Amino acid sequence: MKQLISVKFLATMQNEQDVVKDAYVLFDDKIIEYGKLTEEKAQQFQNDKSVSIVNKVIDGKIIQANSVAFPAFVKGHGHDETCLIGLRKEDILTEWLDNVVNPFSKFIKENHEQLKKKLHDDPFKVVFRKCRLDDIQFGITTYLAHQCNYNKYYIDELVEANDEAGTRAVIAVGSQDRNFHKEILDTVDQAILRLDTAYGKHKDNKMATIIPGPDQDFSNSPEMLKAQKQWSREHEPHLLHIHSSEEKIATDLFTQRYGMTPIEYFHSIGMLDGNTFVAHQVQSTANDIKILRETQTPIINNPLANTILQSGVLNYKEVIENKIPYAVSTDGSGSADNQNILAACQLAFNFIRQQKGCPNAFKMLQRVTTSPAAILKQNVGTIQVGRQADFILFDCSKPYQACLTEENLLQMLLQKFVGNEITDLLCNGQFLLKDGKYGPRVQFDADKVINQVQIITDDFMEWMKQAEIIRETGVGWTMNK
Ligand SMILES: [Zn+2]
C-alpha cells in the first residue's frame, strides 16, 4: 500500500536548494514521489484508492503536520555493548575500557544463565534492543555496530534484535590477536571462522550486513589484518572497519613500539582504500593525512565520544582541505552519553568554525546522512525517488523553531534544533516512531526492555564490588613489556 504524508517543510538533502514548503512524500518501502502538495495534487491522492493518507483528513481536507521531513540519520560507527554504562566519565579512553566497558561484557558473559532466568530473556538481546531504542529515538535507522571485545561472540543476538526493531545494521565483527586480555585473543583461523559463520547465516538478510571489524589498531597483527582484508575483498560489500589513532598515549606507544603510526602500519600491509573506513583518527601526523588522501580512506569522526573521553579533536581543516571522505557519528551510548547524532554534528560544526571558518549547513548535515550512507554503501541518506523510505519528521512547533523558511531551514535545523523533536521515524516505509511513541514496527515492548536493563545494571553494580580488575583490555597492554 502506498502511503502519503503531508508536512510543512521537506529537505531532501539531494542538494542545498531542494527544500519544499507545504510538501508531501508518497512512498511504499521506497520513495515514490515528493513535491509541493497543491490542492489539485491533494485531491488526486484522496481519490486514489491505492493511497493511504497518514495525516488526519477533516472535511475532505488533508491536515498538514507541523513538521519538517528530513532523511533518517545514518550512524557510521557505534558499539552496542556500552549502552548501559555511562560510568567513570573522568577516565581517559583506555582506562575506561578497563574499568567499565570490558567488565560489563564480561559480567554478562559470566552471569549469562543466571541473568537469563531472572529476565526471562537473553541478556545480550535485551542490551541490543535497548541500543535500538536509543537509535530510533534520535532518528537513526541505519547504523554500524562495531561488535568489539566480548561482543564479537554475540552476532546472532544482535541480528535478532535488529530484525525485531525494524532497523538496518552493518555489523563489524571484532577480532584481536595481540596486546589484549588473553581470555578473548583469537587465532587468525578463529577470527575468519567467526566471519564465515556470521556471513553464512545472515547473508540473505537484507537488513543486516556482515563485515570484518578488527577491534583496535594495536590489538591486531599484520597476519590478522591481511587475512581480514582478503576476506573483505572476497565478500560483498567489500567493507572493513577498525579503530585507528584514537587516544594519544596508545597511539604514541604504538608508534614507538612498531616504528610507524597506525595509519602507516595499515598502509604498509595494503589495507587502506575506499573500502576500509577507520573510526576516530584524532591523532594524525602530516604523513597520515597524505596517506589517507592518496588512498581515499574514509574517517568516521565521533566528536562527542572523543571529547568526553579526552582523546582529542579531529583536525577537520586538514581532513577537509585534503578532501578525505569523512562522516560524523556518536560512538556507543556509554562513550557519547546518548545517540543524539544531531548534537554530534553540531559539535563538529562548532569545531570547524574554530579551525577554518563557518561551514555550509548543507555540507555539514551531509556528514550524518549522505556521507555515512555512501561509506556504508546503503541506499539511504536522501529523500529521493527510488531510495529506501527512511525519513524523520521533526516537530517544528517550539518557539526556537519560529521563523522557518525554505532559505534558512537547513541552517535552523543544524543550529537551533535540539535533536529530540523527532515525533516520527520510518525505515523502509514502516513506522519505528509514530506520534512520539515507539512502533508499530518495533516488535518488542520498550518499557519492558527499560525495566530489564535496570535489573542488569543493578546486578552489574553489585558484581563490580568484588570483580577482579582486568588490566589487559585497554591501557593494560601499554604496561606489558
Ligand atoms: Zn568506538
TrEMBL record:
Residues 71-429 form the Amidohydrolase-related domain. InterPro entries: Amidohydro-rel, Metal-dep_hydrolase_composite, Metal_Hydrolase, MTA/SAH_deaminase. GO terms for molecular function: hydrolase activity, acting on carbon-nitrogen (but not peptide) bonds. It comes from the Eukaryota. SUPFAM superfamilies: Composite domain of metallo-dependent hydrolases, Metallo-dependent hydrolases. The keyword Hydrolase applies. Keywords: Hydrolase. This is Amidohydrolase family protein.
